[in-house]
Amino acid sequence: MSKPNSKIYLPILFALLFALGYILGRKSNGLQIDSLFNASKGKHKINRLLDLIDREYVDEVNTDSIVDVTVNGILEKLDPHSVYIPKSQLAQVTESMEGNFVGIGINFYMYKDTLTVLQPILNGPSYRAGIQAGDRILVANNKQLFNKKLTNEQLFTILKGEMDTKVNLLVYRKAEKRKFNVTISRAKIPVKSVEIALMLQPKKGYIKVNRFAETTYSEFHQALVQLKQQGMTEVIVDLRGNGGGYLEMAVAMADEFLKKDELIVKTKNRAKHEERSLATEKGIFESGKISVLVDENSASASEIFAGAIQDNDRGSIIGRRTFGKGLVQKEMKLDDGSAVRLTVARYYTPSGRSIQKPYSDKNYFNEFEKRSVTGELYQKDSIKVVDSLRYKTKKGRIVYGGGGIIPDVFVPLSASHDEEGLALLLQTDFINYFAFEKVDAKRMYFKKFTQPTLKKEIYENPLYFKQFQGYVTQNGFSFTLVKHKTEVLDYLYAAFTKQLFGDKAYYQIVLPKDKMIKKVL
Hints:
Elements: H1 6-19, H2 41-56, H3 63-76, E1 83-85, H4 87-98, E2 100-103, E3 106-111, E4 114-120, H5 125-128, E5 136-140, E6 143-144, H6 152-159, E7 166-173, E8 178-185, E9 187-190, E10 194-201, E11 204-209, H7 216-229, E12 234-238, H8 247-255, E13 263-269, E14 274-278, E15 289-294, H9 301-311, E16 316-319, E17 327-333, E18 339-348, H10 367-374, E19 390-392, E20 398-400, E21 409-410, H11 417-426, H12 429-441, H13 443-446, H14 451-460, H15 462-474, H16 485-501, H17 503-510, H18 515-520
Parallel strand pairs: 11-12, 12-15, 15-16, 16-21
Antiparallel strand pairs: 1-18, 2-9, 3-4, 4-5, 5-6, 5-7, 7-8, 10-11, 13-14, 13-18, 17-18, 19-20
Helix pairs in contact: 1-2, 1-3, 7-8, 8-9, 12-16, 14-16, 16-17
Keywords: Hydrolase, Protease, Serine protease
């Protein structure tokens, strides 16, 4: 019979007590520790059971794994957004929300089982050390990185590390057919929230925000300032696919567009305490036109921003109904290096509506499939509204709560599955990988192109279209591209442009072809 392990038992007790969420405050208030030890009978029962298993169970048991299962089971009974984050995953989650990580600064993918650099991050450690697109990293600190079938997580573990620590690399430069050694000092690498900011037309700007992290507002404000300096009087804020993040960042962004004392959002906790976030006089775009692009994957902080703009009649919401998450989470670090995100409040848009959809549905997160079946993704009339959840905007327009933000201007997906599948294919990294491999095979040849001569090359040389059709087929897709040849060539040109001239040039080609952008323009 094994003896109780007190080193395991104490963290278990703390983990369970924290996971139960007994007395949690807002992020700014911290924890109220003094009530944690007023344990109920239910908590004593869990603790006694774990102690019994630890002392008496016939086989050796990883007690930490039991705690993980127990904590997950407790949180699953609450709501879909109260979650447990194991220690093994917390660092990656934290990096995404902090807006930076420490590493060598490359975008890469495994091409034929070899770590291949797509691009070094501008002004990052690898960029400064002379690493180029197409370089193969064969060895890092004496660890072989080729022919190993390593996962991205394994590669991150090798390439990331502590600030200013060194990584010794063996690199093969295919274009020059040579190997060389280089030592790179790890540094902070930004994880950008603002994916791109550019002028689409002389007075119309575009800003794509992909998350609401700690750096989001500062990035967004900088983009807004730069575009205003270029003559922007109308802005498109693209929140499609943005699953949210920090509430405070959404509030700060909305403040740029709303006048002093206009309500942005209000939250209510269990004690019915209400906190209201009001706009200040600091907004730098309080009079210019704004359009907000959303879709079924725009959630949480994205919905706070869109709701503030819509309810104050400040601009137009364009796209499809958003996800429908109206809950606020607080993250609590636990003693063993894991964390709990617990729902501590509900938020309400300025008109007073909660946009949280019911979470009794077991398929809560599978919203795309449900909306596809009901036809909502293809026809605005298929969006179901509840008349009792009717609210009014500042100017008296009718809006509805109970499940996401319904756009002012609806833009459907294509009803043709073939066309929609093709659109997804052309707007993902798949076509970018094809372009990378073609450029990588003849870098010296492609270096001579300007954008106009590249465009002529792609559209007039039938080889590119033919090879891409073969690439699609080889990768298991059954699309016949001939009837979509013009669209395919447009995206091929954009993908090659991205490889040779960067992201901004790429977006300037693809955005004017986007259906939601067309609605605005």
